[in-house]
Amino acid sequence: MQWKLALHRPIAPRASNEETLRRNMRLGVANGVLFILADAFSDANLVLTVFVRELGAAPWVVGLLPSLKSGGWLLPQLLSAGRLQGMTYKLPVYRQVGIVRFFIWLAMVMVVWNATSLPVWVLLPLFLLGYALYNFTGGSGSVAFQEVVAKTIPARQRGKFFGARNLIGGLLSFALVSPLVGWLLSRASPLLFPHNYGVLLFISFVLIGFGIISFSLFAEPPTTNPPAAISAKQMFAKIPVLLKSDRNFRQYVLSRMVTRLCGLADPFYILYAREVLNVPPRMIGVYLAVRVFSAALSNLFWSRIGDQRGNRLLIVLTGGLIITVPTWALLVMPFASVLSPEALGWVFGVIFLLIGLSVDGSNTASLTYVMELAPAEQRPVYVGVCNTLMGIATFFPVLGGVLLAQFGYLPLFWISAASAFIGLLLSRRLPEPRSNEG
Fold first, then answer.
1. ω before 194 within 30° of 0 (cis)?
2. Residue 254: left if φ>0, alpha if ψ -120 to 50, beta else—which one?
3. Is the pLDDT of residue 314 over 90?
4. 357 with 321: CB under 8 angstroms?
5. Does residue 214 sit in helix, strand or coil?
6. What is the DSSP letter of 226?
């Protein structure tokens, strides 16, 4: 009973607003770093993609992994946003969801560790079910996370906040996670499949637990005079209303969904490298290192732009970089029969450099842009509607798997490049919300 009460108990603020802000910043950065490290050990586009492929998964199943990760985080938000809107404190929702996610991930670790005793037709659905449940339960608490951040971190410090999370988490992933992942998945690993993957997921499990605890200790101020809670049915009814009445919001959703279409190729870059270019398994760790290191360093630049010049500009700049990801894959393809697998592995690795430079900055900009675009009293509704619509777009990689199976890699990369270009054109028409600040 005491633990149940603790889950609902708000954390008292410190003696001054500045001290409370500093404490929340430290806890929030720690939360981000821990989850970034956990995600690196179980990366959906690198580690888990190769894992399910080794189990014999079809391309559309491979594409399902990043879709479950992103879509699971985004899709349930519409169901939780309306109820959350009427709450004085949002943090208890995050705590309750965090406990559920913690034990779901533990079950996944046990499934993977005992994979050799299970037939593939049982193992693969169990793993996918656990991964889906983990991400969808996380999605139900993500509006609470965003609302707590919006309430406690000033708008002009959110770029610094998310940038610090990404920078420190990326550097630690580069220095610690990438070498360990590369070693455990290499031919020199002391652990055979699937125990090498089981160890990686167990480390993620420990980091997830500490990450949940750190954010649960935030000092959240109460929401004064919160609007009435809204049912899920009412929330769904708000989708066409918001899209019709708010032109800026409609433009934003359209631009992001088109840009998301570029992601239909994301989980297949590593498969192209392994199965077509024949790069060695140890390059998975190298690619992870390149991606997280470039993402970490880019946040020094992106966070400053977001704080000082606005997230609209950040969306445009990162959108331009996103175009270069599938474009580089297209440029490398003619050299597949000329260069050695070792040389191709390093040349192809530029893709993961470009992903690191662009995607983290784009995601941070999108998250904070909606916080600024939405009216404060309707922010949970705007965030819930937006992220649910974005959640639909995250299942584009499943379509990518179907396209790959039917037509091959070349059309897949061309479609990705074209959608990124159109998304950039649309994002250039977005307004800057801060132009309306007093």
1. yes
2. alpha
3. no
4. yes
5. helix
6. P
pLDDT digits (tens, 9 = 90+) for 173-203: 888 888 888 888 877 778 888 888 889 999 9
Around Cβ 11, how many Cβ atoms within 10 Å? 16
Tokens representing 418 are 């074209």
User: What pLDDT is attached to residue 436?
Assistant: 53
Contact of 342 with 280, CB cutoff 8 Å: yes
Q: What percent of the chain has pLDDT over 70?
A: 89
How many Å apart are CA 365 and CA 306, to the nearest integer? Answer: 7
Tokens of 96: 């309750």
Write out the two tokens for 26: 């430290």
**Phi, psi (rounded to 5 degrees) for 10:** -70, 150
Q: Around Cβ 84, how many Cβ atoms within 10 Å?
A: 26
Of 127, 129, 121, 154, nearest in space to 47 by CA: 127
Contact 59, 404 (CB under 8 A): yes
Dist. CA 1–CA 5, nearest whole Å? 6
How far, in Å, CA of 238 to CA of 14, rounded? 38
Q: Is 229 in contact with 83 (CB distance < 8 Å)? A: yes
